[in-house]
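HUMAN: Forgive my ignorance: could you write out one protein's sequence and backbone structure tokens?

ASSISTANT:
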Amino acid sequence: MGSACSRKRGQLLVDEEDLYSARFSKSSSFKWLLHTLPRSGSDVHRKVQGPVPARCPSLMELCVAKVREVFNELVEWNILTEELLGAFRDCALQDICLADYPGVRDAWMEVAASQGQSLLSVDISCSDVTDGGLNQLKDCINLQSLSCNYCDQISEHGLKTLSGLSNVTSLSFKKCSAVTAEGAKAFANMVNLGSLDLERCPKIHGGLVHLKGLRKLEKLNLRYCNGITDSDMKHLSGLSKLAHLNLEGCAVTAACLEVISGLVKLKVLNLGFNYITDACLVHLKELINLECLNLDSCKIGDEGLAHLKGLLKLRSLELSDTEVGSNGLRHLSGLTGLTHLDLFGARITDAGTNCLKYFKNLQSLEVCGGLITDAGVKNIKDLKALTLLNLSQNGNLTDKSLELISGLTALVSLNVSNSRVSNSGLHHLKPLQNLRSLSLESCKVTAIEIKKLQLAALPNLVSVRPE
């Protein structure tokens, strides 16, 4: 099911006298109304009711706003057909989102393209649109956002027809074979691109060279583009405004990280599922503006974390399924701004939890599959900002742990599965009135007792395991 809409952008207003005479134009098109139209009927109402006096919207303005509303509802209710779509030809629609909508093909693109310079945003993800359909958009020169994710009928030849759309600021072609060294040439002319999503594009090798001139690029997603090599990565070195970079599962090496080390404006960096070692992390030391770092399943241990201790702006750190242990956490003690810490599968003992007490701002903590006992939970009980706590697979936790965390009243989600928690300890959870999710699978508890607790003390609980 998709959604679509048209919206007002910063357009020049026409003279009211000109507007009046234009109402009686014989033209079948009313694109001229775009200059005065608000985004929707509710916007028309706000225009009249707002603090600044405004002229009353014309009948035609209200009609066009209604057309856009009808279009949106037809898509929302999944009843827009190719035949009905024809009624919206040349209607000055600004935003058309047909992602995952059934039956979208080249004929639909003809109607979309008829919006001409009015068209600002198109999403045809998961459609059967081909090169011919995509080519229809080449004259929509004001297009700002285009998404063609999972469109496997589009080739590199179709992609190249978009090269003239220099006003595009957001572009997404997930899992698209069209993104090749040849097809990616289209990106070079899109000098206003701020966001580019090429996740899972299998033939991207050799294509990143065409990104080096995109000086406004702030977000780049190359997740699971496993054809990328060190030689490809060097072309990113000049993208000085890059703030979000996703390289998860891209076979990143130390040489790649050397390129990244110069992107000092990075705030979000995902290096998960790569062959990153302790020695590689030295290249991250200069990225002092990082707020979110994902090292999930990387080959790092305690010593590598020493290179992260200067990243004082970090808010989220993902270290799940790494070789990190208790000794490594001491390197992180100065990162007091952390709000999310994931140590799933890390080798954390009770001694290691001593470092957790420095993270008073933690809202989400996962310490699963480790070696902590009730003694270790004592170092967690004062983290009052926690809303999510996952202690699953720590097999030595008992009812005492439930007692210790009973003061964490902000908790919304709690997981203590695969532990020694029993029915006798469930009463300790009564103060956790904000709990919405509780998982106690493979514990010594019964669904009947959990249900009693839910009815008696936890009215907000909606997800429970075991059921």
Observations:
- Confidence is low (pLDDT under 50) at residues 1-38, 40-49.
- The radius of gyration is 27 Å.
- The CA atoms of residues 176 and 222 lie 12 Å apart.
